[in-house]
Amino acid sequence: MTLKVWWFPEYSPSQQQVFDDIVSIIKQAYTKYGYMHIETPAVERSEILLKWWENASKEIFGLYGMASWIEDIKGYGLNFDLTIPFARYVLDHQGSLIFPFKRYQIQDCWRWERPQRWRFRQFKQADIDAIWRQDDWAVKYLLYDAEIIVLLRETLELIRTKYLAKKAITTHINNRNILWWLFSAVTWEDPVTMQKLSKLFDSFYKLQQTEFDEQLQTILSWSSYETVKQFLSLWLDNLDEKFIQHPLFIQWVSELKEVFVHLHLMWSDVWTRYVYDPFIVRWLDYYTWTVFENLIAWEYELWSICSWWRYANLTQSLDPHSAQFDWVWWSIWISRIFSLVQEHITALSTRKNWVILLHFAETLPEIIRLWNHLKQKNIAVDIFPWPDKLSKQFQYADKHNIKHVILLWPWELQEWVYQIKEMKSGDTLKKTLPRLEA
Predict the structure, then answer these.
(1) Is 174 left (phi over 0), alpha (psi -120 to 50) or beta?
(2) DSSP class of residue 205?
(3) Which of 81, 48, 43 is nearest to 62 (CA)?
(4) 286 falls within a domain
(5) pTM (2 d.p.)
(6) Does any domain span residue 284?
(7) Is 280 within the bounds of a domain?
(8) pLDDT by residue (tens digit) across 367-396?
(9) 44-67 burial string, b = 16+ CB within 10 Å, else e?
């Protein structure tokens, strides 16, 4: 019987080592691009969390205290995302932040998700944002769109190369305003029909092509259906030439093309890694302009391993009297990626880069001196805790996939040497014992 609560993940030491390595890869990439690290509390006021999303009340883990505290504590909940905590953080610290402000944040979140493969009720996200004051509505900083997409892809490539080498990742990019214009045109701006279209497009990769077409026909008139099909048949390069001749539509297509130009300058083989995809929707109302998803080939059940989009005026949903901010955001769902990694790697080693000093009672003082010396050289090293049979000590090292063990036999002290044994081949190398004080 497992005592652990289901759908709240915990890992073995070897799994945790890989998980931590993925986090380390992400941190290094974020820092290299000039993003600054922050952390926020795990708890926010429930009234703040509920302003972000109308269904949030169904997903928040509320806090409940005891005795006289119970009424006060009910007003708080665990973060189900890192977006609202960051929006609140910006409002609280806007006087001391320098804008545009680039931040990254890697923390746990809690969400009452429906239990299923690759989804958990506690999970770790790795977010980055670039945010600026909306002093000039025309300033969109499209270079940030491209920078974040490239950073995202570079980070995922590092993880993929190390742990998912046989998997292919593709970045699917769209401009949400283009879809808004299309949906408005074919539904005569009917909000109910637009919402149905949005959700249908969002579920495209979970449906068969025939299913998508059938559902599309039930939502639209035949002429509108033909218009949408024509739109879907066009490449980004000819959207503004052959489809809708309207200044706003052409502007939004032009902005998306500008993002692709920046991408091409930042990453030379951009066209093999990034694709225009009209089915990337991100259907919540405060997502604006560029949106994208990173999909792993043939793992569409997993859906996106990270997403990105723009926000407009989200801070004002928390405080209507605050300054207006725009920002671009993306997140890597580390727990989701790691779930896939677990399914594709075997024989994880917790300590493969460690060295173990085998234990001999007669030479223990010299063993400890050598242990100290190796630690000073930044070598990860451990001492077997008891002078057990040599076979058991070797067995312990084997179970941890240790590559090398060190033996300091009593008779080798006369020569002032020790042995390094390569576990797989059995080869040994003698080295001079350093003359150090304990």
Answers:
(1) beta
(2) G
(3) 43
(4) no
(5) 0.84
(6) no
(7) no
(8) 999 999 999 999 999 999 999 999 999 999
(9) bebebbbbbbeebeebbbebeeee
Question: Are the beta carbons of 163 and 22 closer than 8 angstroms?
Answer: yes
For residue 182, the enclosing domain spans 177-273
Q: In the numeric block, which tokens belong to residue 355?
A: 């060295």
Query: In this structure, what CATH number is given to the domain that contains residue 374?
Result: 3.40.50.800
- Helices vs strands, H then E, count in the chain: 16, 15
pLDDT in tens, 251-279: 888 889 999 999 888 876 655 578 899 99
- The rounded distance, in Å, linking the Cα atoms of 76 and 249 is 43
| β-bridge partners, 107 | 125
Closest C-alpha to 8, from 78, 107, 113: 113
Alpha carbon distance 247, 201 (integer Å): 24
Total domains present in the chain: 3
DSSP strand E in 210-286: where? 274-276
Query: Rounded to an integer, what distance in angstroms lies between the CA atom of residue 120 and that of residue 281?
Result: 23
Q: How far apart, in whole angstroms, are the C-alpha atoms of residue 56 and residue 371?
A: 53
- Tell me the pairing of strands 169-175 and 274-276: parallel
The residue assigned the tokens 């708890």 is 43
437 lies in some domain: no
Alpha carbon 175 to its chain's center? 22
* Cα 18 from Cα 23, distance rounded (Å): 9
